[in-house]
Amino acid sequence: MKPLVIVAQRRSGTNMLQSMLKASGGFAVAHEIFLPPGRSVPRFNYWMVLDSLGEASICRWPYSRSHSQDQLRLYYEEVLRRAEGKPLVFDIKYDWMFQTLPAPGTPLVMDFFDGQQAAFLHVRRRNLLEQYVSDVRAVKTGEWVRPSASKGRSRDAGENAPIMVRIDTSGIERILKGRSRLVEEMAGLLRGVATCGTIDYEDMLQDGHASPALVSLIRELTGIEIPADVVPLLEKIALPLEEIVENYDDLRACLAGTEFDACVRA
Q1: Are the C-beta atoms of 186 and 94 separated by less than 8 Å?
Q2: Measured between alpha carbons, how far is 97 from 182 in angstroms, rounded to an integer?
Q3: Residue 223 Cα distances to 92, 119, 193, 232, angstroms
Q4: 232 exposed, middle or buried (CB, 10 Å; 0-12, 13-18, 19+)?
Q5: Is the dihedral of CA 198, 214, 217, 5 positive or negative?
Q6: pLDDT tens digits for range 172-225
Q7: Mutual angle of helices 108-115 and 69-82, in 10-degree steps
Q8: Which residue among 108, 129, 143, 177 is buried most deeply as judged by most CB within 10 Å?
C-alpha cells in the first residue's frame, strides 16, 4: 500500500485532515515527521522509532540536518511494520522539506518518499493572513490542536474570551508575500513527482464533514474510499480575525489596497 504524504505550511489544517483519514478506518497515521520526541503518537514518532531500533546515535533531536536515505529507510520500514497492513499517512511541513535540500536536486525527504511510490497531497490555505495569525496565536497559547469534544467550550485559560494577539503590521505584507512564494516553490517541486494532488484548507469540509472534493481526491490518489460522512476528530481553531487580533483596525488599514486586502476582509 503506497503511503500518502501530506505537504503543507503550518496551520493549514493537516491535523484536521489526518484525523478524518484516521477516523475513516482506512489509514494508519504517522503524524508529522521530525516533531520533537513526545509531540506525536509514540509508536510512529521518528526519534522514538530510531531509539527503539537501537539507532539513537545516528540522529538526535534537535534536528541536525544530518539525515540520510538510509536513516529515513530504517524509520519507514519500521513504521510500515507497525501500521499492520494499512497505508501510512505522513505529514511533512515546508520547514523540514526545505531544510533537507541537497544541492542541487529535490529535497531529500521528498526524494525518498517519491522512491516509495508515495502519493503527495499538497494542502494550501487561501487566506494566508488567517494562517499567519493562527500560527502566532498557537505559539502564544501552546494550543495547536483541540479535540472535537471541546466544541462550544473555550480552553483559553478557563475563560470564555479568546486570547488576543498583536500583529506587527510593519512587516506583515513582507511576511505574507514570503508565505505565498513558498507555496509556489513547493507547488513547483511537487510537479516533479509521479502522483500529486492539491486541496485548499477552505475546501476540505462541507457541513462539518469531509467535502466531496476531498473524498474524490483521496480516492484518486490512494484508491481508498473514505466515507462521505466522516468528521474530524479535531475541532477547527478558526476565530474571526477581529475577535483575536488586538490591532485589527491597524492591520486592516496596513493591507488595504495590497494583494492581501481580501484576506483581512474575508
Answers
A1: yes
A2: 11
A3: 21, 11, 18, 20
A4: buried
A5: positive
A6: 999 999 999 999 999 998 988 889 999 999 999 999 999 999 999 999 999 999
A7: 50
A8: 129
Shortest CA distance to 7 belongs to which of 174, 165, 135, 198? 198
Whether the per-residue pLDDT at 152 is higher than 60: the answer is no
Q: Are 29 and 226 in contact (CB under 8 A)?
A: no
According to the model, what pLDDT value does residue 241 have? 92
Return d(Cα 92, Cα 96) in angstroms, integer.
Answer: 7
Q: Where are the domains of the chain?
A: 4-27+86-128+173-236
| pLDDT at residue 160, as a whole number | 60
Peptide linkage before 36 cis (omega within 30 of 0): no
With contact defined as beta carbons under 8 Å apart, do 202 and 126 qualify?
Answer: yes
pLDDT confidence band for 99 (50 / 70 / 90):
low
- CATH 2.60.120 for domain 4-27+86-128+173-236, yes or no, is no
Residue with cell 467550550: 153
Q: What is the pLDDT at residue 154? A: 44
Characterize the bridge pairing of strands 209-210 and 205-206. antiparallel
